[in-house]
What we know:
By secondary structure, this protein is an all-alpha fold. The chain contains four helices and no strands. It is 31% helix and 0% strand. It is found in: Cytoplasm.
Amino acid sequence: MTGSQYRSGVPDNWFVDPVQLGVPGVRRPLEGDGNTLSWQTDALCAQTDPEAFFPEKGGSTRDAKRICTTCDVRGECLEYALQNDERFGIWGGLSERERRKLKRRAG
């Protein structure tokens, strides 16, 4: 399988580091920096197999959630997923169903 093909429905390049791409205005966060995507450069999921974060329906989320528990940017990740209504994958240690419940309780 080539790098451009999908494995289990997860794109090989699902994480794109905006800092490495040179996207204007995207950089490592500085004190008081409001950049919404800069947290991704420190995300542990970017250093692991993305399949764990996008399990097939009914698949285990345990491995992804375990990685999230030690991630320094877990809060930023969850906030991003909630603000952008992410419908797939584990974000900030929560599944889509768990994020929906969280939004209902908060709303």
